[in-house]
Design brief:
Number of domains: 1
Strand content: 35-45%
Oligomer: single chain
Number of strands: 3
Largest sheet: 3 strands, antiparallel
Order of helices and strands: EEEH
Strand order of the largest sheet: 1-2-3
């Protein structure tokens, strides 16, 4: 499971380090239900960038445990 420290209902830019793909700059959005009991973290990389290519590689390889800065 991916665990990144940021408050719910927020957006942030992060660098995640993945063994299979290296460092990837991502945009992180945290979505919550009405009671904030559940959180969904959405990670995206800017379209057309090397980060997007590395992110797609990481997702396709099944990497789920990034190291944090």
């Amino acid at each position: 499971m991916l665990s990144l420290p940021f408050p719910a209902g927020r957006s942030a830019n992060k660098i995640v380090h993945l063994p299979a793909a290296g460092p990837i700059a991502v945009d992180c959005d945290v979505l919550t239900d009405g009671d904030a009991e559940r959180k969904i973290v959405v990670l995206t990389a800017a379209p057309g960038t090397e980060d997007e290519t590395r992110f797609q590689l990481a997702v396709g390889s099944g990497v789920h445990h990034p190291a944090r800065d």
